[in-house]
Structure formats: C-alpha cells, structure tokens
Amino acid sequence: MFQSPLRAPLIKGKKDYSTITRDILDPMVNKAGKLWYMGITLSGIGLIFGLLMMGWTVWQGIGTWGENRTVGWAFEITTFVWWIGIGHAGTFISAILLLFRQKWRNSINRSSEAMTLFAVICAAIFPLIHLGRPLLTFFIFPYPNTRGLWVNFNSPLVWDVFAISTYFTISLLFWYVGLIPDIGTFRDKIGKGIKKSIYNFLSFGWKGSARDWHRYEITSIMLAAIATPLVLSVHSIVSMDFASSILPGWHTTIFPPYFVAGAIFSGFAMVLTLLIITRKVLHLEDYITMEHVENMNKILIATGSIVGLAYFTEIFMAWYSGIEYEHYALMNRVKGPYWWAYWIMILCNVVSSQLLWIKKLRTSLVFTFILSIVINIGMWFERFVIIVTSLHRDFLTSSWTMYKPTIVEYGLLIGTLGLFFTAFLLFIRVFPVISISEVKSILKLSGEGRSDKDNSHE
Amino acid sequence: MNKQKFISVVLDDEALVLRAVIKLQENNELILDVLSPFPVHGLDEALKIKRSRIPVAGFISGALGAVLFFVFQAWVFTVSYPLIIGGKPFFAAPAFIPITFEATVLFAGIAMVIAFFVRSKLKPDINFESVNERITDDLFVILVDAENERTNSERLGSLLSDIKTINIG
C-alpha cells in the first residue's frame, strides 16, 4: 500500500493486528511493576494530604486560606483555571484533530481524554470548597424552590456551571463510546470469572458488526463536531468570569482567545508530561513515537506564540488605550511587588516554548519532559499573575495589601495533583491506554513494517 | 446460536474481506453482517448500509435543548422573577446565549449517544458471549445467509478459491 515518504511512521516495528492487541493490553494483563507502585504511593500520599486540607477547610472555614478583604480570589481560582485549562488539550486531540483527520492523534487520544476527565474533576473541587458549605452546592443549579428564586443567568459564574458540567458530560460520553470496542477486545482476552463479568458489563455487548461500526464512526465524528465549539466555549466562559468585570487588568476583550490558547498550551504540556512517562513505563515506544512528541511540540510552539502575542497585546493596549488604571495595573505586574511571578510567567511560557524551534531540542525526550513541567509551572503563574496582581492594589490605596498562600492552600494544590495522578495510574491499569481499534485502522497506512499477508491487493 | 442459519467466512485481512464481500454479492449470496476488529473502509458502500440518522437525532434534540433553555431563561427573568441586574433589561437575550449553547451541545450529545446505543442494541450484559473471541483481536468474519438450499460451505469455498480464507463453516 501507499506509504508517505514525507512522514515518519506512526507505528514502529513489525506489527500485525494481534501484536498490537497484545502490546496495548499488556499493562492490563500483567502485574504492575515497581514504578507503578512507587507512583501510586506518592500520588496517594498527596491525595490524602489534600483531603485532610479540604476537610480542614470545610471544618474550620475559608479563614484557613490566605485570602483577605482586598484579595478575595487567589490560589483556589488560580488552580481551578489551571486544571480546566489542562483538560482542554484532551478535547483538542480527540475532537479537533479528529475533524482534521490527523492520524497521529490515534495513539494519544485515549489517554489525553482520560486526562481531560481527571483534570475537570480536580478543577470542580475548587468551586465546591470555595462555597464554604459544600452541602449547599445544589444552590448553583436553577431548580424550583420555596423562595421562588432562580440563579442569575446574566452572570458568567452561572454560565461556568453549565459550561463545565456540559463539558464533563460530553467528554465522558466521547471517551466511553470510544472505549467500548477496546473493552470488548479485553473482554475477549480474559477467562471466566468476576473480571470477565465486569468487562462484559462495561463492553455493552460489543460485537464489531459492520453496522455498529458505521454508527460508531458517525457518532464519534458528530460528538467531535459538537465538542469542538464546546471546548472553545468552556475556556471563553471561564475567561469571562474575569473579563466581564470592570477591574483593570481583567476588563479586556482579548481574554477569551487568550485563555483558550493558553489552555491548549498548558494541556499539551501536561499530555507530554504524562505520555513521556507512560510510553516508557508501559513500553509503548512503538506507538507513541518521536513523531508524536514532535508534533505535540509543534503545537506547543504555535500556542505558546499565541500566548506570547496575547501578553504583548496586553502591554500594547495598556499603553495605547491611554487609561491610567490599565497602565498602572500592567506596570504593577511587571515591576510591582509580584514582579517575580510576572517574569516566571514570561520566562516559562513565552521564552522557553520558543526554544522548540530548534529541531534537536524538539526531538529530545529529556528536554521535552523538562519543558513540559516548566510550561505547566508557567501557566499556573499566568493565572496567579492575572488574578492576584490585579486585585492586591485596588482602587482604594489604604486597602492595598499582599497575598500569601497558607499551607492549607498548598495542600489543596498538592491534593488535586495527587488525585490527578492517582486517577491516571488507576486508569492505565483498568482500561487500554491507547485506542486499539483506531491504531489498527491506521496500521497499513502509517505502520513501519507489517508482516503483510496480502501484497497482491491493488 | 442454537440453529445455524448462516455460514461464517473467516479471514485475517481487511482488504481480503472487501474482495470476498464483493465476490459473494456478485454471486447472489446474501451477506447478513461482517464482524471486524476495526471499521473496514469501503465496507459501508459494499454492504449498502444506509447512512445512519444519528445526526438527525442529535439535531432534533439539540434544537429542543436550545429552545427549552432559551425560553426558560427568558421566562425566569421576564415572568417568574424579574430582577434588574446591572441595569440590564429583563429580556437580556445576549446573556442567555452561553447557557443556550451549552444546553444545545448537551442535549445533542446525549441524544446521539443514546441513539447509538439503542440502534446498535448495545447494553450492559454480564452474560454476553462472543461469536468468535478473535473478532475483537485480528479476525474478520463474514456472515453469509444460509436459509436457502443453494448456499453451503463447499459453494462458498469454491467461490472464494482465489482469496485466502482461514475457515468457512
């Protein structure tokens, strides 16, 4: 069959369909290695610490955080936006790249969709504990009540509730529909027993009929088509939490595209962090190749440059608008008391991602891995800079103050990181981490060498 | 399967599947279904599968979600509990768009997945038995209707003599 001379193969080595099945199901069949146990212990400790801090917050109240009357929003909303942003790469890979028929997405979409789900769960924890009284969370949904009150549909915070719950639901459906044939594959590989029954249940009786595949493909592409505007809307709405206020530094129309680009940027960094470890630990180097890493690095250059352009636009508009408050808010970021946060943000997001223009760095796993962590730190600081520096010196000089996070707040960040990695580590043990059927469907076109049984065809 | 009403032709390559399907159809054999580990391109046309109307279900449900949520928000702010918020008019249509959009996507997505499950008769089933456990791995099975007297394994074998099959029966 035709093989593109321009592109490197997406599946390395001599494979046939059953080798692919075996390779990908391996981590589910075999006992977990030492590294896995080390990982889950570490993330489990983080998770438990976070849960304790969450419990302390609910028990003791928001007073355990470092927020004050001037800086009412800080660490938690920063981490919330950070997690939501990370989730976006998963949908970008699974939906947008599917619409663009990018074949290299086929071996990374499953794990990045799972990453999306876990990231959204981590994010959702923050508004929940932000409320102070988590048992009253249902107040944020419009439901008929004895007071005759409704939620404020004019508020971006309410839009957020709808956006994030829709985003989670659609991502979950998309992910699960994609999983069904692969769960079927695993179901057919295990002997009778409780495990078989569970996977029988989860596989929804998938039999691989041509008509089912037809509907499956249509459902996937249609879900991708609706998930594409959805993912753009989610972070746009998150940005409107800020942009629709009148605070200098927040009140800018560039926020929606700026936030979306930043979200995809940080999300791809997180995908790279996860996949570089996953491919090594699960021995999936043949499926998640250097070509994949390089492609993702190219997306990092593109989105990183858009983020850089957005930072520059903010600087330009602060000067060009002639509004002294905007001007002050910006200068306060650049050289105010939080100057270090601003420069960490510039260094980690704009400067570091430009290094990827160099092919040698772009194709280096060690460099990519370090960079992906650097970018995630930078993107956390981006939200911190936007939120805290705009607030801490407000309109009334006498209430100017500084914000300093407490141990409880660091604990919440560590706890969600623990939750995220625990969930991901469990995921790679119970579900195929690469979409088996999708990889098989590109084997002939993009596989390096196939023990071909039919060379006579075409 | 208690009563054999079909003959299964087992192959191990999707290109061969397509050729076998076309060959069998040329010889007036009725193909009930093809089971495969991944979607085989060109099979939809060969089997004359009508394009699924799942997108239609999505559209109808999405439109319903849009209308429902837009009207609901408008009703809340104009009839049920009119409030002046930030000097905006009661009927502030642009502010209703984001939630209307999210509801559209939510309704459309859920409807399409439900339609997919219902039409493909997919449901959680603990006692599911596979026809052949390698279908989800590396084998392709063509199910040929054997309700008539003409169709039998020998005839299919001779029809497919130039295509490498694993098993017919």
SSE inventory with pairings:
The complex is a heterodimer of chains A (458) and B (169).
Chain A: E1 11-15, H1 17-29, H2 34-60, H3 75-99, H4 109-130, H5 156-187, H6 194-202, H7 210-243, H8 255-281, H9 290-320, H10 324-335, H11 339-354, H12 359-362, H13 365-392, H14 407-430, H15 436-441, H16 443-446, E2 447-450
Helix pairs in contact in A: 2-14, 3-4, 3-7, 3-8, 3-13, 4-5, 4-14, 5-6, 5-7, 7-8, 8-9, 8-13, 9-10, 9-11, 10-11, 10-13, 11-13
Chain B: E1 6-11, H1 14-26, E2 31-35, H2 43-46, H3 54-80, H4 93-119, E3 140-145, H5 153-159, E4 167-168
Antiparallel strand pairs in B: 1-3, 1-4, 2-3
Give a verbal description of the structure:
The complex is a heterodimer of chains A (458) and B (169). With 458 residues, chain A is mainly α. Chain A is built from 16 helices and two strands. Chain A has helices at residues 17-29, 34-60, 75-99, 109-130, 156-187, 194-202, 210-243, 255-281, 290-320, 324-335, 339-354, 359-362, 365-392, 407-430, 436-441, 443-446; strands at residues 11-15, 447-450. In chain A, helix 9 (290-320) crosses helix 10. Chain B is an alpha+beta fold and 169 residues long. In chain B, helix 3 (54-80) runs antiparallel to helix 4. Chain B is rod-shaped. Chain B starts with 5 loop residues before the first strand and ends with a strand. The model of chain B has no long low-confidence stretch (mean pLDDT 84). The interface between A and B is large, with 70 and 71 residues.
